[in-house]
Amino acid sequence: MQLYPKEITKKIDDIMNETFLKACRGEKTNYTPIWMMRQAGRYLPEYQKVRGNVTFLELCKSPELCVEVTLQPIDLLNMDAAILFSDILILMEAMGATLEFHEGVGPVFPKTFRDEESVDRLRVPDPDDTTPFVMETIRLLRKELKVPLIGFAGAPFTCATYLIEGGSSKVFWETKKMMFTSPELFHKLMDKITESTILYLQAQARAGAQALQIFDSWAGILAPCDFSVFALPYVQKIIKSLQQFDIPIIYFANNGATLLDLSVTSGADVIGLDWRINIGDAVKRVGKKAVQGNIDPFALLLPKDALRERIGRLLDDAKDAHGHIFNLGHGIHQFTPPEQARIAVDAVHELSGR
Amino acid sequence: MQLYPKEITKKIDDIMNETFLKACRGEKTNYTPIWMMRQAGRYLPEYQKVRGNVTFLELCKSPELCVEVTLQPIDLLNMDAAILFSDILILMEAMGATLEFHEGVGPVFPKTFRDEESVDRLRVPDPDDTTPFVMETIRLLRKELKVPLIGFAGAPFTCATYLIEGGSSKVFWETKKMMFTSPELFHKLMDKITESTILYLQAQARAGAQALQIFDSWAGILAPCDFSVFALPYVQKIIKSLQQFDIPIIYFANNGATLLDLSVTSGADVIGLDWRINIGDAVKRVGKKAVQGNIDPFALLLPKDALRERIGRLLDDAKDAHGHIFNLGHGIHQFTPPEQARIAVDAVHELSGR
Questions:
Q1: N- to C-terminal Cα distance for chain A?
Q2: What ipTM does this complex have?
Q3: Which of A21, B154, B226, B228 could join B222 via S-S bond, C-beta 3.0 to 4.6 A?
Q4: Which of these is catalytic: B31, B47, B162, B251?
Q5: A327-343 per-position pLDDT tens digit
Q6: Using the beta-carbon criterion (under 8 Å), do A223 and B296 form an inter-chain contact?
Q7: Which of A38, A114, A308, A354 is labelled catalytic?
Q8: How many domains are contained in chain A?
Q9: How close does chain B come to A276, measured CA to CA in Å?
Q10: How far is the alpha carbon of B53 from chain A, nearest alpha carbon, in Å?
Q11: pTM score
């Protein structure tokens, strides 16, 4: 919907583009804002160049480099929001877990957290002491950016799975074994991660993050009855602790279509959606909340006309949303041609009225 | 619901237990029947013993051994249905694909099917010529069994992912790349698998299978709009071709909660459910169809009382179903203690009125 003539909108946007924040709050916007999960990442040759000289963890801990890669998709692809370059497991390392990234495997915790003793060893860290590079990156970015900056953390359940499994997993046997046979120990671990996440996200907000996203990448492995006991209460607690900052909170439960009714009770302002659900169906279920999503990241491979048509349909399906931030239903894949991402950004902008 | 006194029910069941088939048809039953996906499998020491002497593929091709392992969970755990011991990819091998099973990896197709030439090389095989061991297993089992025998095949989309990816996959990049950039080739591959599956399942029905399940293990990676174009029409075609046999057809789209409204149009009599959805919510959406499912397979690890309580709740949630076959929401995990599976079977029987 067009509130002002295009020339004026464009001039305002050139100074400070707040379209993303408005959409989060369910306010009217001149067009649908878009950003992409993992938009600063391996699909960009410019990112690969920076990454070529440092390890992934070194990159995460170098504010200047983090600023550089965070800005790349904004400049190159015209995204309407920036997301802090970091990793959800940085906080787990700050809690005392040994974190490694193995090429072709992903994150690895060589020492797992499956018993009382190992859980007791984890600390609730002061984020300014243990992750000052994150706060510094946020402060530096705010000086550079003309679009809002999103900070983030992993949801406690998702972080717990990595600590318990020792990395990623196909079936999460150890996580569920702990849930079902040692629920008290599981809750103890969740409590500790939750306390740490609260301090971490509060520090990000104080450093200048203008929105915060909580990534629950593995929530979708839970039956709704288990999600409501083992995962959701911790997300609710975190979001409550962030209300004082009055910035939008986005909760993204990956593969969470059957958890939507519960996710709505998280307290988040925006509900992230993966690509598995028709966004119109999701809008009906989330009620007066903004939604973020949800094209299949691999649909970016479609020929230009088909991609634009699919984006047009998605925008139309989402038309009754109380705020829609266009995004992929998951992180952009490393083999995606950047020019296809640009086609998508332009299509969202043009077809939604920019 | 109790139709006859328990003593009589028990006597009827001792001769031929048709509870499963009745539930599939939405008829009243004296108790809720139960079987478990992968019930003949690695969690059973008795299975491991048989498997110790042969490779997985040799086992699949030895009717006597297949009969032995198919019967194990019926005898040991008191299941209400048997499922043919085989693998969905046996048919792909019969179509001309080279199939290997690598320890710790799973199925591997060393030669992938990603171009016209490779797809053209696949044949539509005569099942009695290429997979006689499957039909022989069915004929032998029917002589032994006092519970109904389920035959099965993979859904074309799921089978196609294995051929295209060369095995299992985390993100199915190659599959979607073909879908989105070479849809005609993708449909050609699907047509060929579909024709083969029709002949294969018809042969199973003729050999004596009393129900047929179509496993769509990877349907859940598709957005609903893509599922309805690239997967569902082929399932519909298969099910239509099986109507002449007048036996129940079960369609199980794993991770398919958002596909339920579409799955109902598959023509299947029974809709399989994974554990991610509350079964009561699913029942409301499938209408006058039987449902099969859907406890989290890992919930079998719960202490006895908690497991029985969860089963009781699930039975209660499913009470308005037009037929309910209790099952896991996915295959039983190899590390599950068999005695826990037995607790579940007994709980389902007792709590539903046997």
A1: 9
A2: 0.94
A3: B226
A4: B162
A5: 999 999 999 999 999 99
A6: yes
A7: A38
A8: 1
A9: 4
A10: 28
A11: 0.95
